[in-house]
Amino acid sequence: MSVKISPIVSRSLIVIVCLTLLYGAIGATPARAATYVVSDCSAPSGAAGRLVNVIAAASAGDTITFSCSGAITLSSTITLDKNLIIDGSGQAVTLSGGDTVRVFIVNSGQYVTCHCAEAR
What we know:
Blueprint lengths: L6 H21 L7 E4 L12 H7 L5 E4 L3 E4 L4 E3 L3 E4 L5 E4 L7 E3 L5 E4 L2 E2 L1
């Protein structure tokens, strides 16, 4: 026994399936970027809350903020291999290479937005 489906019912089913898929896509929640906080400006690395450690923990698209003020003097260049926002707004943060190293190298294809009091 074969069942025939009318063209109107067939088109209606296609429309329902398409609308269901579209609704699911619209209702999908995009991944949200995280915010990491540099809480220790006394040295560039070596402990949780220091700049190098916070950058290492961050993922592409994350934001790094500061809850401390001061100069962070680097002994080696920080290579940034992911898209980041480094935001020192509200703090007096200076990132320095001590006139011997670059502060950052941003790998090709990556972008970094930096809002700092000074990076030299």
